[in-house]
Amino acid sequence: MPGGFPLLFAGAMAIPWKPATAEAEITRIGFIQPGSRQENQRLLDMFGKSLSALGWTDGKDIAVLARWADDRTEALPAITKELIGSGVAVLITAGTPATVAAKRASASLPIVLVAVDDPVSLRIVESLGQPGGNATGLRQTPARLCERDHDLFPMRDGRR
Fold first, then answer.
1. Is the pLDDT confidence value at 103 over 50?
2. Cβ count near 134 (within 10 Å)
3. In this structure, what are the phi and psi dihedrals at residue 32, rounded to the nearest 5 degrees?
4. Which of 50, 83, 94, 133 is the most exposed place for a label (fewest CB within 10 A)?
5. Where are the alpha helices (DSSP H) in 66-142?
């Protein structure tokens, strides 16, 4: 997913910071993807790199609980409920179906969304500039809109 690394970095920054103690509890992060692990491992790997860049180590001071629906969107509500029940501090959701399931499951648990079609019309966020509520992230912009924006807004030096 192009451009996903900066967003996943921002998602990693949403993890609550806990001071190091001898018996510190590991912060749990829920990662929900509607596809299969085999097809989407790259997204989870990028997230892991973002965490590492911030000094977090999976299995040491955090635990990433990745769940995959294997293209069965009907399984997403149960997956989300299971992760919330496990005590995750934040949910990272990839795609519209996973994000909708997470938003329906909790109005208070932080949700960092990646690649959601239109989070405003889906009522996941109040607006793109001021998301409000418990969800934030990056919406998915179709390539044709990016091309149109490129034509409408020339670069600062006048190039198109």
1. yes
2. 18
3. -120, 130
4. 133
5. 76-85, 96-105
Q: What is the pTM of this model?
A: 0.74
**Out of 76-80, 105-109, 122-126, 141-145, which region has the weakest mean confidence (pLDDT)?**
141-145
Cα dihedral 91, 93, 99, 102 sign: negative
Four-CA torsion 137, 142, 121, 29, nearest 10 degrees: -30
CA max distance for the chain: 58
The pairing of strands 111-116 and 135-139 is parallel
Confidence band, pLDDT 50/70/90 cuts, at residue 128: confident
CATH number at residue 142: 3.40.50.2300
Q: Kindly state whether residue 160 falls inside one of the protein's structural domains.
A: no
Do the Cβ atoms of 54 and 33 come closer than 8 Å? no
Give the C-alpha separation, 102 to 111, whole Å. 7
Amino acid symbol at 143: A
- Domain tally for the chain? 1
Taking a C-beta distance cutoff of 8 angstroms, is the pair 107, 133 a contact?
Answer: yes
